[in-house]
Specification:
The complex is a heterodimer of chains A (114) and B (114).
Chain A (H helix, E strand, L loop, with lengths): L4 E3 L2 E4 L5 E6 L6 E7 L6 E7 L2 E4 L8 E4 L6 E5 L8 E8 L8 E2 L3 E5 L1
Parallel strand pairs in A: 2-11
Antiparallel strand pairs in A: 1-3, 3-8, 4-5, 4-9, 5-6, 7-8, 9-10, 9-11
Chain B lengths: L3 E4 L2 E5 L4 E7 L6 E7 L6 E7 L4 E4 L2 E6 L4 E6 L8 E8 L8 E3 L3 E6 L1
Parallel strand pairs in B: 2-11
Antiparallel strand pairs in B: 1-3, 3-8, 4-5, 4-9, 6-7, 7-8, 9-10, 9-11
């Protein structure tokens, strides 16, 4: 059973470009979470999605950031017009259910904005 | 102010020695406390999960303790191995509808030297 997959593992973008980060949850998992880890900081919750629904996006910046989890295919975290401050590691996690279910993390995508 | 504080920030020990990592949290109310291991360049992997009613939980050479009254937890590693070199992260979740929102500490970076 493959774990949570994220790609790309490393992404370099110039300021103003768009970044698309993909996450495929573990088989049988329908709950996806995105976290951001800034340098020297702990992981911070961004958004929680189920298939075709955004459940909680309270941790996501209001502008330039969006997330989706379509009926088919991976979850996508999209950052438009990236700035240097977006440079971070972005982790995706998935779980089988909601309450007290373990979240399994992917290896992360390291975004560098030049 | 971070609601999950860990100490020390970093620790260097010799292979075979034991060590104890500390976690103080102010997250309230509190549902469960987890310890994760994060290898460099990888996603966090769960070591233990404890609810507020549990005092101790073991996973091989890892033993976590929890004092919900003082809001303190510790992770004890016995007979350390080189592969234990990683960041150890204390994570707290709140009960109810938002218990998927994990609050992460910044981690303790453990280096095990031969």
């Amino acid at each position: 059973n493959a774990g949570v997959m994220q790609n790309p593992r490393h992404l370099v973008r110039r300021r103003g470009q768009e970044a698309r980060l993909r996450c495929s949850p573990m088989k049988g998992h329908s709950h996806v979470y995105w976290y951001r880890q800034l340098p020297e900081e702990g992981l911070k919750f961004m958004v929680y999605l189920q298939k075709e629904n955004i459940i909680d996006e309270s941790g996501m910046p209001k502008e330039r950031f969006s997330a989706e989890f379509p009926k088919e295919g991976p979850s996508i975290l999209r950052i438009q017009q990236v700035v240097r401050g977006d440079s971070a590691a972005y982790f995706c996690a998935s779980s089988q259910g909601l309450f007290n279910y373990e979240q399994y993390f992917g290896p992360g995508t390291r975004l560098t904005v030049t | 102010k971070n609601q999950v504080e860990q100490s020390p920030q970093s620790l260097i020990i010799l292979e075979g020695k034991n060590c104890t990592l500390q976690c103080n949290y102010t997250v309230s109310p509190f549902s469960n406390l987890r310890w994760y291991k994060q290898d460099t360049g990888r996603g966090p992997v769960s070591l233990t999960i404890m609810t507020f009613s549990e005092n101790t939980k073991s996973n091989g050479r890892y033993t976590a303790t929890l004092d919900a009254d003082t809001k303190q937890s510790s992770l004890h590693i016995t007979a350390s191995q080189l592969s234990d070199s990683a960041s150890y992260i204390c994570v707290v979740s709140t009960p109810g509808g938002s218990n998927y929102k994990l609050t992460f500490g910044k981690g303790t970076l453990l280096t095990v030297n031969p």
